[in-house]
Amino acid sequence: MLTLTSIELNTWIAALLWPLSRILGLVAAAPLFGNAALPISVKVSLGMLLAMIIAPTVPALPATDPLSMAGLLILTQEMLVGLTMGFSIRIVFAAIEMAGEISSLTMGLGFASFFDPQTKGRSSAISQFLTMLATLMFLTVNGHLVLLAALAESFVSLPISASPIHSGGFQQLAAWGGEIFRSGVQISLPIVAALLLTNVALGILTRAAPQLNIFGIGFPVTLGVGLLVLAMVLPYLATPFQNMFLRGIETARLLPRGFAERDRPPPPPAKPLRPAPPASPVTPLTPP
Questions:
Q1: Cβ atoms within 10 A of the Cβ of 109, count?
Q2: 192-215 burial, b for 16+ CB within 10 Å, e for fewer?
Q3: What's the whole-model pTM score?
Q4: How many Cα neighbours within 13 Å face the side chain of 179?
C-alpha cells in the first residue's frame, strides 16, 4: 500500500509550484505569450507544461513548507523574477511602438489611432504596423524559443532559495528602460529627418508664394513623403530589430544574476605587486 507523508507531499507541491510561479510571471509579462488575445486557460496550460518539463532539472529546493509564510515569500519572489524577465522583452516592443508614435505624429497621423488590446489604450496606425512586423520577425528568428531557454537557464543562475533577492536586478531593469527612448528615436529618425526637410521646403515655398494655400497641400505632402520613406526604410529594419531582440534576451538572461549578486562569494584579495628589479645599466654600442 502506497503511503505519503505530509513532508513528501509538501516537497512535491513545492517542486512544481515554485518553478510554475516564475514561469507564469514571464508568460504574463512577455510579449506574444502574454497577449490579451490568448485565453487565460491557454497561458496556464502552457505554464504547467513548461513547469513539468523544467521542474526535474531545477537544483535542490529549500526545505520550506509551501503554505507557510516563508513559502509564500518564495512564491512572491519567484513571481517577481519571472515578471522582470518578461518585462525586459516587453521594453523592446515598447521602443518599437514609440518609434511608430513619433513617426505618426510627425506625418500628421496622430488622429489615426486604434484600440490596442495589448496595452489597453490607443495607439497609432504606424505603431501597430511596426508592432505586428516586430512580432512576426520575433517568431521568424525563434526569439520565443531563445527566451524560454533563458528562462530554463535562470533556475541555474538564480536557484530557488529562501534568502531574499538582491536589488541589482531591479537596477538593471531600470537602466534597460532607457532603451525605449533611445531605440525609439533611432528607428524613427529617418522619417523624422525626411519630414523635417519637407516642412522646411514647404516653409520656403510659402514664403516665396504667400498666396499658396499651405494648409491645403501641406498635409498630403507630409503624409505622402512619410509613407514613401517608411516603404524605403522597411527592408533595412531587420537588422536593428534583431539586435534589439538579442539585447533584450541577453538582459533577461542577466537579470537573475543581478538578483543573485548577494549570494556570490566575495572576490579574493588582490596580491600585492612585487617591486620591479633594478634595471641593469645599458652599455652604449661602440662602432667596430
A1: 21
A2: bebbeebeeebeeebeeeeeeeee
A3: 0.79
A4: 24
Contact between 29 and 88 under an 8 Å Cβ cutoff? The reply is no
Return all residues near 73 (Cβ < 8 A) that are at least 6 apart.
162
Residue 33 pLDDT level (bands cut at 50, 70, 90)? confident
Question: CA-to-CA distance for 125 and 113, rounded, in angstroms?
Answer: 6
* Tens of pLDDT, residues 238-250: 899 999 999 999 9
Task: Encode burial over 147-165: b for 16+ CB neighbours within 10 A, e otherwise.
Answer: bbebbeebbeebebbeeeb
Domain regions of the chain by residue span: 84-260
Amino acid at 47: G
Average pLDDT over residues 31-57: 86
Contact of 62 with 93, CB cutoff 8 Å? no
- Cell numbers for 22: 516564475
Tell me which amino acid residue 29 is.
A
Question: Cα-Cα-Cα-Cα dihedral of 255, 257, 260, 261, to 10°?
Answer: -110
